[in-house]
Design goal:
Strand order of the largest sheet of chain A: 1-2
CATH class of chain A: Mainly Alpha
Number of helices of chain A: 16
CATH architecture of chain B: Orthogonal Bundle
Strand content of chain B: under 5%
Helix content of chain A: over 70%
Distance between the termini of chain B: 30 Å
CATH topology of chain A: ABC transporter involved in vitamin B12 uptake, BtuC
Order of helices and strands of chain A: HHHHHHHEHHHHEHHHHH
CATH architecture of chain A: Orthogonal Bundle
Largest interface: A-B, 43 and 42 residues
Oligomer: heterodimer
Structural class of chain B: mainly alpha
Order of helices and strands of chain B: HHHHHEEEHHHHEHHH
Radius of gyration of chain A: 20 Å
Shape of chain A: globular
Strand order of the largest sheet of chain B: 1-4
CATH class of chain B: Mainly Alpha
Number of strands of chain B: 4
Strand content of chain A: under 5%
Chain lengths: ~350, ~325
């Protein structure tokens, strides 16, 4: 058991990666990317058809939940994993993005690609508005305020005539095609590829941020807020940045989700989704991109593949949160240890 | 909130309701406020000793509402069509339900502490880990209840004949409302005395002032923390019984809104402050009832949330803050 606990796949992987030369690394990245791009067709081959999901269509599952959860978990990872702020209402930003797409898509002539930045902007703005009063306080307040906010957005959507009330909004238009790739229910792989592109962009963004000033500021805030403040890190500003960037990713996921399902209703945005995304982050390994991707892929895909989990899905995820926190608080693939980085820096 | 509050005609921005039914609304607000007072004790006491939000308190409340109803349905065998009962039989039935709810919630709270907090505290992990494991326990409890009840609500058999005891002007004082106010006030008074006068209460206050110093003074930290959870759970369970009495049904997700409201009440009064929880609960109950009379009941939880954000924005230490040092848990 102790052995299992100390097993750090992340570091092992990093070791192998660091010993590779450039062509090897490039080849590896392209092979993985190629496999991911081909995933929508895996259900059709006999030897990979084991991936097929019993009830929902396999390609639909790849977009939602799998792709969407990975995207949202990466967004939440900036908030929870990178800067250590517990956001329990992440679904709110997802909902804001989805409703922006639905309202603007049905009422105005804007297409989904034009709405995407608007949805992200609105999600970001609500992140800032919510963050300003709460991020100055201790982390637990943020947790409960976001918990409430997630529910409030849903209640507002139910009770506002402009968002269609409890019935929601139907007939969200399909996005126009890009490079000849159509986006509709017969071409779900298009949505999957768009989500993959967005995931890659988010990964790139997180890696850039992590290597620069915001990443260091977040790391400092996560480890000890008071010390960070004493060291001159503008704590509130970087917390708001982290919170609103996470929100923008959630908003983007929401816009794509609305376009893909062509329909949004308040029921789609319950507290459960926030918990699911949080479990994905925690299960995979807070703060580590690859862990988060692995964790959310597993948690999104397994309940679809194995039906008997799906009724008790929430229960299993709740248990996962407790058990992971007690047994392996760093998740499946823990983040890189700070000590290792300093050791490396010393040898250089 | 189902039932009782919806007696009033509600429409968008109906200010005339406030003037015409001011006193009835006031009474309703005080009644729901007292329920919040008891639930917010579960938050405020735990916060006092651990400096952590007891995220599972909403589900501890939910467990209590089920315990009270299950005792009267399955143990005493009353059903939806049962007649109301009177006299001694009524007293011991209600007492049994109350005790069952309190004990069940208290025990659940202690288990939550063992599962979600103790191990992590021993390991000295960061706050985030405790928050996440507490929210995990809370999900396990509510989802367990959802699966066991097949997402169906459970009705409380009406054993108490709900008559109006007396009228003051246009306001009728219904028996269940009186029971809620009287018993919640008594329980609050008891907890306040307990924390301020007994040895264990002194230990609880000591731990809330400084964990390390109290350990040096020979206080068994784990026992005090368990006791705090237990007392908080008892009060939350009593609130659950009173809620059942007035609103007469429960559901697996009932804790969510009430938990958020009670937490808001605790913050409003200054979290970690016992008497603050009292005033916070009553204030929030009144705000909520009047706001839902004006804006409509569907906006009730939005009101609560707005109050929470406003308090955090302008007075993060709550209305009473740390002013009442003596009664700090």
């Amino acid at each position: 058991m102790a052995n299992l606990r100390n097993l750090n796949l992340r570091d092992r992987g990093a070791e192998i990666w660091e010993n590779w030369n450039r062509p090897k690394r490039t080849a590896f990245v392209f092979v993985i990317l190629g496999l991911v791009v081909l995933l929508p067709y895996a259900g059709a081959f006999s030897f990979t058809s084991i991936l097929n999901t019993p009830t929902a269509s396999y390609q639909a599952v790849l977009v939602y939940p799998v792709g969407m959860y990975v995207l949202m978990a990466l967004g939440l990872n900036i908030v929870v994993g990178k800067s250590g702020l517990l956001d329990l209402g992440y679904v709110a930003f997802f909902a804001i993005g989805a409703y922006t797409a639905a309202v603007l898509g049905t009422r105005t002539g804007l297409n989904i690609w034009e709405i995407l930045p608007i949805g992200m902007g609105l999600a970001m703005l609500s992140g800032v508005l919510l963050g300003l009063p709460t991020l100055r306080l201790r982390g637990d307040y943020l947790a409960i305020v976001t918990l409430g906010f997630g529910e409030i957005v849903r209640i507002v959507a139910i009770n506002t005539p402009a968002t269609g009330g409890p019935n929601g909004i139907g007939g969200v238009p399909n996005p126009p095609s890009i490079l000849g790739q159509k986006f509709n229910l017969d071409n779900l792989q298009g949505y999957f590829w768009i989500v993959v592109v967005m995931i890659l962009l988010v990964i790139w963004m997180i890696r850039r941020f992590s290597a620069r000033r915001p990443g260091r500021a977040w790391e400092a805030i996560r480890q000890d807020e008071d010390v960070a403040m004493l060291m001159g890190v503008p704590v509130l500003r970087y917390k708001i940045w982290s919170f609103s960037i996470g929100a923008a990713v959630g908003g983007a996921a929401g816009v794509i989700f609305a376009a893909k399902s062509a329909f949004v209703a308040p029921d789609m945005f319950t507290f459960n989704i926030s918990v699911l995304i949080l479990s994905c982050v925690v299960f995979g390994g807070m703060g580590n991109i690859w862990g988060v991707i692995l964790g959310s892929t597993i948690l999104a895909y397994l309940p679809e593949r194995i039906r008997f989990i799906s009724n008790a899905r929430q229960l299993v995820f709740g248990l996962a949160l407790v058990v992971i926190m007690n047994v392996r608080p760093d998740g499946l693939l823990p983040r890189k240890k700070r000590e290792k980085i300093t050791a490396k820096g010393a040898t250089k | 909130m189902p039932g009782y509050l919806q007696v009033y005609e509600m429409s968008m921005m109906n200010f005339s309701v406030v003037t015409s039914q001011f006193w009835s609304l006031l009474l309703a607000g005080v009644a729901i406020g007292f329920i919040y007072v008891l639930i917010s004790l579960g938050y405020t006491m735990v916060y006092g000793v651990l400096r952590l939000i007891n995220f599972a308190n909403s589900e501890i409340f939910m467990v209590g509402t089920f315990a009270a109803i299950i005792v009267s349905r399955n143990f005493f065998g009353y059903g939806d069509t049962s007649d109301t009962i009177h006299g001694f039989k009524l007293y011991y039935t209600l007492a049994a339900c109350l005790i069952a709810a309190m004990l069940m919630s208290g025990v659940t709270a202690v288990i939550v502490e063992l599962v979600a907090y103790r191990r992590l505290r021993a390991k000295g992990t960061n706050r985030l880990a405790s928050l996440i494991s507490a929210i995990g326990t809370s999900i396990v409890l509510s989802e367990g209840a959802r699966i066991l009840t097949h997402s169906r609500p459970l009705a409380n058999p009406r054993l108490l004949d709900k008559f109006f005891v007396f009228n003051l002007g246009s306001v009728g004082f219904r028996i269940d409302i009186i029971i809620v106010i009287v018993s919640a006030a008594l329980l609050f008074f008891a907890v306040d005395r307990f924390v301020n006068k007994t040895l264990l209460g002194k230990a609880i206050r000591a731990v809330s002032m400084s964990e390390d110093t109290s350990r040096l003074m020979g206080i068994n930290l784990n026992r005090v923390i368990s006791a705090t959870f237990f007392i908080g759970g008892l009060m939350t369970g009593a609130a659950a019984f009173l809620y059942d009495l007035v609103f007469e049904n429960t559901k697996f997700n009932i804790g969510f809104n009430l938990g958020l409201a009670a937490f808001t009440a605790a913050v409003l009064g200054g979290i970690g402050n016992l008497r603050g929880a009292f005033f916070g609960g009553l204030t929030l109950g009144l705000i909520e009832v009047f706001a839902s009379a004006i804006f409509g009941a569907q906006w009730q939880s939005v009101t609560v949330f707005v109050v929470l954000v406003l308090v955090l924005l302008f007075k993060p230490n709550g209305l009473f803050g740390e002013a009442i040092q003596q009664s700090r848990v």
